[in-house]
Description:
Layout: E1 16-22, H1 29-42, E2 45-52, H2 55-90, H3 99-108, H4 113-124, H5 127-130, H6 137-145, H7 148-154, E3 158-165, E4 171-174, H8 181-187, E5 197-199, E6 202-205, H9 216-220, E7 226-231, H10 244-276, E8 285-290, H11 292-297, H12 308-329, H13 341-345
Parallel strand pairs: 1-2, 1-7, 2-3, 7-8
Antiparallel strand pairs: 3-4, 3-6, 5-6
Helix pairs in contact: 1-2, 1-12, 2-6
Amino acid sequence: MPQKPASGSKNSSGNKSISLALQGGGAHAAFTWGVVDQLLLDGRLDIKAISATSSGAILAAVLAQGLHDGGNEGARDALLKFWRKISIASSLMPLRMNVVDKFLGHVGIDLSASSMALDYLTKIFSPYQFNLFDINPLRGIVEEVVDFNVLNKKSPVGLYINATNARTGKSRIFEPGDLSLDALMASSCLPFIFKTVEIDGEPYWDGSFSGCPALAPLINHDEPGDIVLIQIHPSFVDETPTTAADILDRATEISFHSVLLHEMKTIELYNGMIESGALDQNPVFLHRIEAQDMLTSLGRASKLKADWDFLIYLHDIGVQTATDWLNNNFDQLGKSSSLDIRALVA
Length: 346
């Protein structure tokens, strides 16, 4: 393993270098958009690498494309345009929100007719039955805004996108040189809604099943020692779910989180070996930006809610959360983890 650069050291611009780890979460990834938007606007951080999965993987590709085209401002503009396209596409879907759904608000959307209809379809039928033509408007949007030739040859950041092999359960990491539209669709393929994505003859599902997101690429490559995790899926919930749909959603979140905890344990072991002198490397410092209470209160079905007002609502939560995190933790970058890994994995 090559010697890592000094963790959190300032680069020639005087900024601190970090890696980002982005989770998925459907429309809740608009929270991630707000966080990243504020980090870019703040201007004191340079994003050198991104590991991402599911909707986070798509944001990572859009972010990398924007950084290539126009630096931080280009990235902010690219993310804004992407989410506007998502909102427009959502308004054309057959199970879009209606006036009654909007009246129910952000929390009550779980009770909406459109939400319950989708629950029924995905619990009774597979996408091979109710989505015969594998309709996924996201595919066309990504194809429009991301130039994979550019990212494969001139990506401005280390980009690591993971998908889960549906046969073996193993994670596959796609890097610049191996990135494609299919790779992003595979990383965000929820098998309850979309048909399996095949790449090189292998079937792939959502990357969150095997890495939520994968942290190993940010440890095993010559990347900054500070990893900032933008977390969407809750680590815990206050109440045990009781409805069938909520139970399935929470069970899925637990499986995603268990994979993340395993990788956090690996980081803890890695840092322990460095501390004991068994490894001559720089430690990995882990940080987390999350708004668990707020996102959990929105309800399961809001992950599929993409009207513009709601996306901006999530974006603004992300902006404020990132602002608070920077105020409280910026000086700690390069010195120690602001996330207590031992408490999480104990």
